[in-house]
Amino acid sequence: MTVSIVVRAIETDAERERKFYLSEIAFSTNPSPENVTFWQNYVTTLPNYRPEQIRAAFKGDLQVGGCDIYERVMHMGEARLATGCIGSVNTDPEQRHQGIASALMRDAIAYAREKRYAFLMLDGIPKFYYRFGYTDIFDATMQDVDRLAILAQQPSSYTIREATIEDAQSILDLYKEQQYSYTASFTRTLEIQQHALQNRMANTAHLLACDASGKVHGFLSLGKEADIHASELLADDWQATLALLQYHAKQFAENDAPATLRYLLPDNHPITYQLIEHLQIPDTSNVGGPNTFGSVLSQSYHHRHTGWMARIIDLPAVVEGTLPEWQARWRRSLAHWSGVLRFVIDGEPFALIIDGTQISIGEPVEQRGHILHFSQQAFTQLLFGYRPITWFLQENETKVSPDALAALSILFPINHTFITRSDYF
C-alpha cells in the first residue's frame, strides 16, 4: 500500500532536530553535530522567526524531508514585495525518488498563497523547480581581480580591523547604500544585522576598512583560512575598496599565491567600476593583444532552469506592489505619452493606464490599448530584468507601436537584479 506524503509545520523539538539533521547531511561536505546545532540555533533565533516557517514531510510517522520558508520584503526600486524565500530543501537519502521534494514544493506554494506573498524565490538545483512555475531571474557574475595589480597600488590610507557587534549599524548603512538600489535586495533591520554578526561561522572573518577618524567605509566577509573567494564586499569609496583588497591579497604565502582574487559583484556595481578605473597589470610584457587580458576579468555563469529562480504567487499583489516603481521609472524618464498597456499573464489580465506623466492600474477594457500575452514565467523574468522586453515580444511574435515599445522599455529595464552573499538563504 502506498503511504501518502503529508507536509506541515514542525511541532516538536525532535521534529526540529530531525529537520536540521537532514539539511546537514544534504548540504554539508563535512557533516557534523556541531553544524546541526549551529544552523538550528541560527535559524530559530532569526528576528521574526516563526516555527511554521520550518516545514517537514512525513510518510506516516516517519519524517522524510523538509525545507525552510523565510518571510522577507524584497526591494525592486521603490517597490516593496512580500516574498517567501525557500531554503534547505532536503530528502532523507533512503527515501529519494518518491515525490517528497514535489510534495514540499506544492506545500510551499499553498503556504505562500495563504500568506499572500507576491513571489517565492529559491536557489535551485538543475531541471527540477521549473516544473513548479519557477524561472531564472539572476545569474551570478564574478570579478576575478589580478592580485599583483592590487599589490602594485600605493597602500591605502585606511586601516583594517575585525568587526564587532557594535559595528552592526555601520555595516547596515553600507548594505543599504550599496544594495537597496538592486532588485532582490531585502529590507534589513539593525536586529537582522546584529544577528548576522553574532551568529557568523567560526571560520569567517568580518573585516572593516576605517579612515583616520575611525569611521567605517568598507566591509569584507572572508574565510579565515586563505581563500581566493570573498563572500561579500561593500565599500563607499576607493580607499576602502583598496584597503580591503590589499588585506585579502596579503593572506597568501608568496610561493603559493593565486594569480587572481574573486568577488561576487555584477558588472554595473560601483565597486566594479572602481576596480576597472584604478587597477592595471604591472607587467604586460608576456601577455597577448590588449583586448584579451586585463586587471579585472568578469565571468557570468548561465545555466538554464538552475540557480536563482522565482515564481509569481499572487499577480494582483505583484502588480499593486510594483506600481510605485513603475511610476518612479516613468517619472525619471521625463516621458510624456498616453495609452493603455493590456497584459494577460497566463489568462489573468491587468492594465497599466498611462496618462501623460501619470501611471495607474486599471481594468483591462476590451478594444483598448496594446494586448501583451505572457506566461507567468516570462513575466517574472521581465520584472526582474533578466531579458529585454524586445526579446519577449520577438519570442511571442507580438507587434507594438514604436511609442508603446518605448514605454515598455522604460517600465521594464534590464540588469537591475543582484543577490549579495549575505542575502542567500
Kindly describe this structure.
The chain has 425 residues and is an alpha+beta fold. The protein has three domains: 5-137 and 304-311, Gcn5-related N-acetyltransferase (GNAT) (Aminopeptidase), CATH 3.40.630.30; 141-301, Gcn5-related N-acetyltransferase (GNAT) (Aminopeptidase, 3-Layer(aba) Sandwich), CATH 3.40.630; 314-411, 2-Layer Sandwich (Nonspecific Lipid-transfer Protein, Chain A), CATH 3.30.1050. 32% of the residues lie in helices and 30% in strands. The protein has helices at residues 13-27, 33-44, 100-115, 147-151, 168-179, 190-198, 238-249, 270-278, 315-333, 376-383, 389-395, 402-411; strands at 5-9, 54-59, 62-76, 79-91, 119-124, 135-138, 141-146, 159-162, 185-186, 204-210, 216-223, 229-230, 232-235, 260-264, 296-300, 307-312, 337-345, 348-356, 358-362, 370-374. The strands form four sheets. Strands 1, 2, 3, 4, 5, 6, 9 and 16 form an eight-stranded mixed sheet that branches. α1 (13-27) packs across α2. The model has no long low-confidence stretch (mean pLDDT 95).
